Amino acid sequence: MKKNYHLYLGKAGHLTVMSEFLTRGWNVAIPEVDVGDDIFVVQDDNGTLRRVQVKTSTSTQRQNGFSGQFNVPLKQLRNMANIPVHYVFIVRNSDLWTKPVIIRQDYLLDYLQNDSYTKDRIACSGLDLSKYISDFNDFPFIEE
Amino acid sequence: MKAIKISVNKQMDGYTFSIAPSARLLIKSWFPDAHPANNIFVAYDTKSNFELYYDKLESYIYPALLGVNNRNDLNKKVDEIQFVDTHTGKILHAHKVIL
Predict the structure, then answer these.
(1) Closest among B33, B39, B37, B40 to B73, alpha carbons compared
(2) First CA to last CA across chain A, in angstroms?
(3) Which residues fall within 8 angstroms of residue B47, CB to CB, at 6 or more apart?
(4) Which of A79, A81, A107 lies at the smallest CB-CB distance from B21?
(5) Interface of A with B in 104-133 (CB under 8 A)
(6) Which residues in chain B have Cβ-Cβ distances shorter than 8 Å to A112?
(7) Do A78 and B86 touch (CB under 8 A)?
(8) Which of A26, A47, B45, B86 is placed for a possible disulfide with A78 were both Cys, Cβ 3.0 to 4.6 Å?
(9) Closest residue in chain B to residue A80, using alpha carbons only
(10) Tell me, what's the ipTM?
(11) Which of A124, A120, A125, A96 is nearest to A110 (CA)?
């Protein structure tokens, strides 16, 4: 695999997620200075802003499917601003991107605080996040 | 003792008060007509002005954040409202409920 491949995969993931928002009629922008947010997603006609953080992963094949692994700093999750961050998780599996799992910051933090974790590792294995697959409720189609 | 935790995040321009989605669900189960908010942002100057003329801001934040009109109803369910610093985990302010 190419050196620094994760950087390429990460950018590819960003662009994939950005294209998804664009198809829904939301405008997108990458901040000039990288201080945490990956993408600003904006509703043009009224200025509604959503902050998006994209997390990408390669897949590991399992007996009943595949898995991806992501790192989300707890400090970042706890930094609750008046506009919460939407985390978008996508996995590159069998030369295709999976459907995005979209979870708002406060919900993700709630899951982790109610789950067991140590300083180094958060175990989400038992957590069913299926309801967040392609959960674009906060990004509805903008038609007019 | 039942305590509701309100997260307080200090930002560059003010405080963001928020409650966890699980706490919002709990409030909704207690009071189906309640409308808990995700978060409330208060600028530092707004807070200091408010406290100069009125009272501690926290006493007014929690009914607005929890979306419960009748404080007495809330007081029957909860013993304490804790305002917790999200970064340090320290309790910044605890509002004891007195019936």
Answers:
(1) B33
(2) 44
(3) B14, B15, B57
(4) A107
(5) 106-107, 109-110, 113-114
(6) none
(7) yes
(8) B86
(9) B9
(10) 0.77
(11) A124
Considering only CA atoms, which of A46, A55, A56, A49 is closest in space to residue A21?
Answer: A49
pLDDT digits (tens, 9 = 90+) for A73-126: 888 898 888 899 999 999 999 999 999 999 999 999 988 876 544 544 444 656
* A133 contacts: CB under 8 Å, gap ≥ 6: A99, A100, A101
Q: Is B21 on the interface with A (CB under 8 A)?
A: yes
Measured distance CA(A13)–CA(B93) in Å, rounded: 42
Flag if B39 and A84 touch (Cβ within 8 Å): yes
pTM of the model: 0.84
Give the C-alpha separation, B62 to A84, whole Å: 19
- Cα separation of B65 and B34, whole Å? 10
Q: Give A37-79 pLDDT, tens digit per residue.
A: 889 999 999 999 999 999 999 999 988 888 898 989 888 898 8
Please tell me which of the candidates B21, B41, B87 has its beta carbon nearest to residue A106: B21
Give the amino acid at A110: D
Residue B8 is encoded by which pair of tokens? Answer: 């307080």
The CA-to-CA distance between both ends of chain B, in Å, stands at: 14
Q: Where are the extended beta strands (E) located within chain B?
A: 3-10, 14-18, 39-43, 80-85, 91-96
